[in-house]
Amino acid sequence: MGTTTPPRTLAEALRARGDESLAGLLRARPDLLSPVPNDITQLATRAGTRASVVRALEHLDRFALQTAEALAVAPDPAPYDTLLALLTGDGQDDGDGRDDAGAAITAALPTALATLREQALVWGEDTRLHLVRTARELLAPSPQHPSPTGLGPTVSEATAGMSPGRLQEILTAAGLPPTHDPVSAVTALAGLFTDRTRMAELLDTAPVEALSVLDRLVWGPPYGEVTPNPTPPVQWLRDRGLLLPVSTRTVVLPREAALHLRAGRAHRVPEPVAPALIAAAERDPQAVDRAAAGQGFMALSTVEELLKLWNNGGPAILRAGGLSVRELKRAAAALDTSEPVAAFWIELAYAAGLLASDGETDERYAPTPASDEWLDLDAQDRWTHLITAWLAATRTAGLVGGQDAKGRALSALGPDLDRSAAPEVRHRVLALFASLPPGTAPDPQTLLARLRWERPLRTTPPGGPSPQGEASDLRSRIALWTVNEAEMLGVTGRGALSSQARALLDEGPDDAAARLAPLIPEPLDHVLLQADLTAVAPGPLERPLADMLSVLADVESKGGATVYRFTPGSVRRALDAGRAATDLHAFLATHSRTPVPQPLSYLIDDVARRHGHLRIGAASAYVRCDDEAVLNEILADKRSATLRLRRLAPTVLAAQADPGSLIEGLREMGYAPAAESAEGDVLITRAGARRTPPRTPPVPVPEGPPVPDATLLTAAVRAVRAGDTAARAVHKESPETGTAPAGSLPRTTTAETLATVQAAAMTGSAVWIGYVNVDGAASQRVIAPVKVEGGFVTAYDHTADEVRTYPLHRITGVAELADEQST
Q1: What pLDDT, on the 0 to 100 scale, is given for residue 484?
Q2: Measuring CA to CA, how many Å separate 60 from each of 54, 118, 202, 364, 441?
Q3: Cα(first)–Cα(last) distance of the chain, in Å?
Q4: For a Cys-Cys bond, which of 265, 316, 560, 736 suits 89, CB 3.0-4.6 Å?
Q5: Coil/strand/helix, residue 497
């Protein structure tokens, strides 16, 4: 095929492309690489499959999609001018007042058409533009699948099967001369509808009610239902072919007539330019960074609190997977937040690999060993770790509480929460934030409008909008969740992107951590004790101090300063962890900037004096106490009836309950028992003892095949080119075998095969062979023999683009290439 010959098929158009253009196609549509096509013909066939075309259409922006939709209703092939006219209109006023967009459409169309060509959705010269057949089938109108343009079938399509007599009646009513040829009749009727002067004259005679009917159908859907006895205006339209029958009760406005009423436009509102991103507010960039840093520090504190909450073993896992509603409510109450927000923090910790299932028989969630490593990091490094996990995660916490396709509730940490589009949407939302000047907060509605323009098929699939409308668009919902989550995580501050987040997106985690570090307050080594049994932490605390204080006291309130409250239960918790009363007094005296209040000292001494006075062991359980009076009180208390206690000795009671239940029961009665071992020693309960086995974070579910790197693209293009060379090889005619058609295996004797490959090895020329592998699969190859010995031929295989060795007995035959292909 000469360089000036227009391509006749998509395969020929792809074959004429350069290597860089082919690599661009494979980069834009990576599904075409699975596996690497054998040749250009197979690549073109794969590019026209329904699944691949749908995926390519989903990644078009709105104007590129509108261009493809216009080609779907244009003649095939369509000249460039026809396509432009469908997008801009014919210059006549249709009463919609949108002719001012023509210049923008004219400027944007070459780019949109180049995008469609690059993705192999359109091929051919500008004089003969072809939309690939599968895309035309997806976007062209039909009764079951209306076109996104709202146009109906052509006159020729709508009148297929109509009787010649009925066609003559329509021509007569429309004022056209009769013809006995149905094809000529259809042509005449279509010519009338495309002639603006004659069509205007016909519509001038129409009843006003008939024009109202056309107004309802002109922008789609073009189908309407009629009764057996239609009204006079509808009958007037039917008589003149302006409404053509689809069935006994359905009529359609033909495409040519609709285009006249639309002034030639395929779309009511062409959108050649992306909607502008409008700024909602402009703030001081430094104030934004400080607000984002403070919010990011709060995010770290929330995740740490969640890990502490499940430190000794978290909630049980539902049989179907995930958390129960009750456990989610409990976590939300502990984190002092709403259930949807608690679900987000839980899913984030899970995505970051900080929480996982312990894999035990009684399966529960618990912190992973990686959580301890994460807690040892500096605050800025912990933040970058969380944000990196959030950006890549496909698990979508916003879905928690909703229902799946089968009507089942979606639970936190449960299955069916992965949405492969989530990472791409998050990155795109943040990229739009980053496109604004520092400190500028975008308007959320314009942000959503921009996203819908960039990926319109996620909102309106081929065939029309979804039944639920735009509110059900998952991409928009993920975008809104991203805006809220970014604010909670400190990626944005006061609605604008922070400089540390910009650094994370552009430069990487190290630069982001370096920018964040000066904005995070230094941890404190002290608290302020108060007489009302509270301690005030005026800022973040050093980790050892925070860990010990969280055991010794309960968090009462959070904010810029955290308030801890000391209670008998919290002091007992510290004693259970192995701390003595003297240790607690020393700890408070060391870390308080104010004197230790006397009520707090009394509280510690009082709880310590009673702590361990009762001893619990396994009998199945027993109570041991040196003070007989205390045991008498327990036996006399009606609340102990459920424990089923009986006296074994003056200082020992036996119980039918297990030790854990016995301890909890006595504590509810106001006592302070301590567990003891079989040797009689007090058992110390260490905090944070339960960890899962080593776990890897959940793997994100990819939206499609990964984008290939440059090395893979180069190798793939070379392999496709080599395979195409082999498939299209032209070989010389021999007197014995003649010329075999391209694609068939050559057949020669063993002696002829040996002589031909030896000659090719001596001259350095390429030959065409048929080869059968050990599995019996036959293939054809173009090779350049290098060495022939021992029953094997070593050659450079142009098809595989590598040097290979072939047994001669597996070569079915050999033929020389024609002179123009042998080099």
Answers
A1: 95
A2: 10, 12, 40, 44, 27
A3: 18
A4: 265
A5: strand
Residue 364, beta-bridge partner list: 316
Distance, CA of 503 to chain centre: 23
Amino acid (one-letter) located at 95: G
Residue 617 pLDDT exceeds 90? no
What is the distance between the alpha carbons of residues 547 and 661, in angstroms, rounded to a whole number? 27
Tokens of 496: 């604008």
* Residue bearing tokens 């404190």: 524
Structure token pair of residue 270: 């062409």
The rounded distance, in Å, linking the Cα atoms of 189 and 174 is 8
Query: Is the peptide bond preceding residue 221 cis, with omega within 30 degrees of 0?
Result: yes
Give kind and range of the element (H or E) at residue 385: helix 379-392
Residue burial 49-79, b: 16+ Cβ < 10 Å; e: rest: eeebbebbbbbbbbbbbbbbbbbbbbeebbe
In terms of Cα–Cα distance, which of 111, 59, 108 is closest to 88?
108
* Residue 111 confidence (pLDDT) above 50: yes
What SS3 string covers 505-517?
Answer: HHCCHHHHHHHHH
Residue 272 main-chain phi, psi, to 5 deg? -75, -20
Distance CA 25, CA 543 (A): 53
Cβ-based neighbours of 746, under 8 Å, separated by 6 or more: 731, 737, 740, 768, 769, 770, 780, 812, 813, 814, 815
Q: Which two tokens stand for residue 590?
A: 């060391």
pLDDT of residue 735: 46
Model pTM? 0.76
Q: How far apart are CA 456 and CA 442, in angstroms?
A: 20
CA 735 to chain centre: 61
- The more confident residue out of 393 and 247 is 393
Q: Rounded to 5 degrees, what are φ and ψ at 365? A: -90, 145
Tokens of 387: 């944000």
Q: Is the dihedral of CA 12, 13, 18, 21 positive or negative?
A: negative
Q: Which residues pair with 197 in a beta bridge?
A: none
| Cβ-based neighbours of 733, under 8 Å, separated by 6 or more | 739
Q: Provide the pLDDT confidence category of residue 820 given band limits of 50, 70 and 90.
A: very low
Structure-token pair, residue 180: 């006995």
Q: Which long-range contacts (CB under 8 A, 24 or more apart) does 65-69 make?
A: 65/148, 65/456, 65/457, 66/112, 66/266, 66/267, 66/270, 66/271, 67/109, 67/112, 67/113, 67/116, 68/116, 68/121, 68/122, 68/131, 68/135, 68/139, 69/139, 69/147, 69/148, 69/149, 69/266, 69/267
> What token pair was written down for 400?
């928690």
SS3 292: helix
- Which neighbouring-strand residues pair with 403? 409
Q: Give residue 473's pLDDT band: very low, low, confident or very high (50, 70, 90).
A: confident
The predicted-structure confidence for 620-679, as pLDDT tens digits, reads as follows: 688 888 888 888 888 888 888 888 888 888 888 888 788 888 888 888 888 888 888 766
Task: Give the number of other CB atoms < 10 A from CB of residue 33.
Answer: 20
Report the distance separating Cα 273 and Cα 105, nearest Å.
8
